[in-house]
Amino acid sequence: MTVPFHHPDDQLLIGYASGQERAGKSLLVATHLAYCPDCRQRVASYEALCGNWLEELPCAGDDGLDALLDRMDGLLTAARIQQEPAPIELPAAGRTCGRLVPEPLRSWLPDAIDTPTDDGSWREISKGVWLSGWERTLSGTTKSGTTVRLLRMASGAPVPAHRHTADELLLVLRGAFRDEYGSYGLGDVAHYVAGTDHYAFGASEEDCICLFLLDGDLIFLDEDGNPL
Predict the structure, then answer these.
(1) Is 55 within the bounds of a domain?
(2) What is the structure's pLDDT at 60?
(3) Residue 225, Cβ neighbours under 10 Å: how many?
(4) Which of 63, 180, 210, 212 to pair with 137, CA 20 to 30 A apart?
(5) Would you call the peptide bond into 104 cis, given omega within 30 degrees of 0 as the criterion?
(6) Assigned domain for 101 exists
């Protein structure tokens, strides 16, 4: 099994390890860990470090909030420099066993999503691009929360160009896609921040299916990059 090439950033992994990350992003990170031995090793190291951070950090009342944050940044930087995760074998529990997704995401999905068909489980939003009928809204960084669903792209089918007003994350569960930043295959994570203009298209013979997390709204763009 090929390990992922694109990973959640350190802040997402640290937030997950410390239990401070919100539910939607924690679900995405946990599912990525089923594919990625490197990130499992990093999360394990961060979990070990988290227990020592509060003891090592200066008291906010003595040195102020800025000193507290500066000290934390120093600890995180030191952790990244010192860490050289050794390759570890992907455990059987992390394998998909012929199914679309591993745990923990599998438990969230109805059976119809796990083996995608055209039985009404998907809603076509443009030619060759579908969103799952299954959807969850979880606490997020915006008032409306984080929308969690699946995105499906046929080979060569483009997702309409759009601009993000908040974070969007994609985790590839099957196939592959490309965008202006590179190629993404099984287990890879793509992270787009507010203000990013973005397009994507399916880049594998089979349909590409991604776990899709969206904070805020999307602004769709015309060919000149202007809002529609």
Answers:
(1) yes
(2) 47
(3) 9
(4) 180
(5) yes
(6) no
